[in-house]
Amino acid sequence: MSTEQLLAIPSPLPARGTRSPRRGSLRRADVIWGLAFVAPYAAVFLAFIVYPFAYALWLASDPSLYPELIADPLYLPVLVNTLLFVGLGVNVKMFLALLLSGFFLRRRWWIGALLAIYLLPWLIAAPQMGVSFHWMLIGEQGLIDGLLRELFGIDGPVWFNDRVLAVGSNIVAYVWKWMPFWTVIFLAARMTIPRDIYDAASIDGATGVRRFVHVTFPLMANLYLVCTLLSTLWTLGDFTTVWLISMGAPAGHSHVLATLGYRYAFDTARPALAVAAVMSVLPILIPTAIVLMRRFHLSEVRV
């Protein structure tokens, strides 16, 4: 048999149920390369997410920390501040954003320019916003008290010497900073509502407030709830606003739990108590996260 005839004979196929050695080696190589690419991300996830949370939970696992935390005269006022900051800040922000999204939906030539200006607070970095608000409210040297003195001839309050004014300043600054972001979200949602629904509602006599109550809000109710829950989760951990604006004044009574935990950890060198203070918000955080996940699941089922 010639050499050409030998080369023309096909090699025998592997029996069914057996793996080709070359195919098996290729699969092992793919697995090795896949693990090599995934390993750095897994290491970062373990080092910067899993380990800090696990270490924090271990620090806060001592039951004696919580009586000590409650015994601190600052803790209960700070807990109330946190509930006010989150409850008022989130709900006022979301409701105003929903209303303003309808205003910016109007087709006027100047609406686009006004929307661009309205988005500036959201585009400004949070530290710059906090420092600006702090110096506007610093007292006689601040912009607000200066305007009150020049325009109306009255002396403004010392904003950070009163707990109510300090907490209110934090809430106002927070709403001013984040309301444009959620306005854009609601504006995009309004633009997806078919025009035919509004035309049918107008024929039925639903205009103005009635159209908002009976048409717009029912169609956006699920999105509004999901955004509110998500914003609540974010706001519970908001540190920058309070730390840069009121700085906890007066005497730490305008702190929230996030800034109080920082004070425990670095000013009094009690990191375990700091973690316990932050973890004390879990009875609010966990149910909110569960409800949020359920709303996402219901949205997927409807789709």
Describe the structure.
There is one protein chain. The protein has 2 domains: 16-58, no CATH class; 65-302, MetI-like fold. α3 packs across α14, α4 (75-103) packs parallel to α9 and α13 packs antiparallel against α14 (271-279). The chain is globular and about 60 Å long. It is mainly α. The model has no long low-confidence stretch (mean pLDDT 86). It has 15 helices and no strands. It has helices at 3-8, 21-59, 65-71, 75-103, 111-118, 120-123, 126-136, 143-152, 163-191, 195-203, 209-236, 240-245, 257-267, 271-279, 282-302.
Attribute tags:
303 residues, mainly alpha
Short description:
By secondary structure, the protein is mainly alpha-helical. The chain has 15 helices and no strands.
Strand and helix map with partners:
Layout: H1 3-8, H2 21-59, H3 65-71, H4 75-103, H5 111-118, H6 120-123, H7 126-136, H8 143-152, H9 163-191, H10 195-203, H11 209-236, H12 240-245, H13 257-267, H14 271-279, H15 282-302
CATH superfamily of the largest domain: MetI-like
- Using the alpha-carbon principal axes, give the shape: globular
Q: Determine the strand fraction and express it as a percent band.
A: under 5%
Question: How are helices and strands ordered from N to C?
Answer: HHHHHHHHHHHHHHH
